[in-house]
Amino acid sequence: MKYKLIAIDMDGTLLNNEEKVSERNKEAIMEATKKGVQVVVSTGRIFSSATYFAKLIKVVTPIIACNGAYVSEYHRDNIILENPIKNNDLKNIIDTLEKNNLYYHFYDNENFYTKDLEYNSLKYYEWNKKQDEENKINIQIVEDPLSFVEKENIKVYKIVVMDNDMERIQNSRIELSKNKEIEVVSSWHGSLDIMYKGVSKGKALKQLCNLYDISREEVIAIGDNENDLSMLEYAGTSVAMGNGIDIVKEYATYVTDTNDNDGVAKIIEKLVL
């Protein structure tokens, strides 16, 4: 089978547990692109964070960011797809999270909004200290998020909820899922991702394939967690990481090695190189 596109998740997949891209992964991706294969970075992260890693692997790639709510080419100003959460739904979500005393942050394509520097916002804050200005994530502390979104005309593509108490996370998921205008998935243990209705990595990947005139049979998708399932379901060939959750492994055509053992490179070498 001649493959034309590889969609690769970032966290837990392309990135190892130190949040780095191994040299073997970089080399395999470069060799695949030399064979004419389009590589697509597909992540739940904010677009500006994903751009850093897209540049790092040294390929010109469209980026599926925010779990598919925002798709753009990083090397030029070309937004392919965007589906922000509707303002009324956004306010209702924030109100629910505040009532349940949960940590959350939200973002557009380049601005990261948070009430408290905890969990991922603290991680990005520490990340910024080590980066050149052009690679920093623009973090804005918002004391009253509800008032902020009422006054500011911003496009929020994704809200992330995090808590160490899994029972609180699951109870909040049940409550939030009653709103049929939003999607709620998990991309990591103890977290929830909230997007506009119908948004998923799979639907974004399908739109990219239509744009590039690539059939699903010519696509490989590689991922490790629940938010990757939709793109694995769309792709003709689906690959689960060795460190992936059981439901992803059960669904996948192949299970490769872990993210700490060059699983991405190994499956590209096997199927493409």
Explain how this protein is built:
One of its GO terms (molecular function) is magnesium ion binding. By secondary structure, the protein is an alpha/beta fold. The protein has two domains: 5-82 and 200-271, Rossmann fold (3-Layer(aba) Sandwich), CATH 3.40.50; 87-196, Hypothetical Protein, Haloacid Dehalogenase-like Hydrolase, Chain: A, domain 2, CATH 3.30.1240. It has helices spanning 23-34, 47-56, 87-99, 119-129, 145-151, 166-176, 201-212, 229-234, 246-251, 263-271; strands spanning 5-9, 38-42, 62-65, 70-73, 78-82, 103-107, 111-114, 138-141, 158-162, 182-185, 191-196, 219-223, 237-240, 254-255. Strands 5-4-3-2-1-12-13-14 form an eight-stranded mixed beta sheet, with helices on both faces. Strands 8-7-6-9-11-10 form a six-stranded mixed beta sheet, sandwiched between helices. α1 (23-34) packs parallel to α10 (263-271) and α3 (87-99) runs antiparallel to α5. The N and C termini lie close together (12 Å). The mean pLDDT is 95.
Q: Return residue spans where pLDDT drops below 50 for at least 5 consecutive residues.
A: none
Total number of distinct structural domains: 2
What is the alpha-carbon Rg in Å?
18 Å
Order of strands across the widest beta sheet?
Answer: 5-4-3-2-1-12-13-14
- CATH C-level class of the largest domain is Alpha Beta
Q: What's the main sheet like?
A: 8 strands, mixed
Oligomeric grouping of the chains: single chain
- Overall structural class, as computed from helix and strand content, comes to alpha/beta
Pfam family, one: Hydrolase_3
Organism: Senegalia massiliensis
GO molecular function: magnesium ion binding; phosphatase activity
GO cellular component, one term: cytosol
